[in-house]
Design goal:
With 62 residues, the chain is mostly helical. It contains one helix and no strands. The protein is rod-shaped and about 65 Å long.
Length: 62
């Protein structure tokens, strides 16, 4: 069984191939930004859910 690579070796500049290859710096940057935005929104969602849960507990105690 071979190892699964998590990283992509990025080229220094785009060759403007159609469709863009996986090592294109533009494609890699777009994917990285998409992943970071998804992680950020997930973090905000979890934080809001926790805040709502604690607020609900506080209101039931009063």
């Amino acid at each position: 069984m071979g190892k699964k690579k998590d990283t992509v070796k990025v080229k220094r500049k785009c060759c403007h191939s159609k469709p863009a290859c996986k090592t294109c710096p533009i494609v890699v940057l777009r994917e990285a930004l998409r992943e970071s935005k998804a992680a950020e929104t997930e973090k905000v969602r979890k934080k809001k859910k926790k805040k709502d849960k604690t607020a609900a507990i506080e209101t039931t105690e009063q």
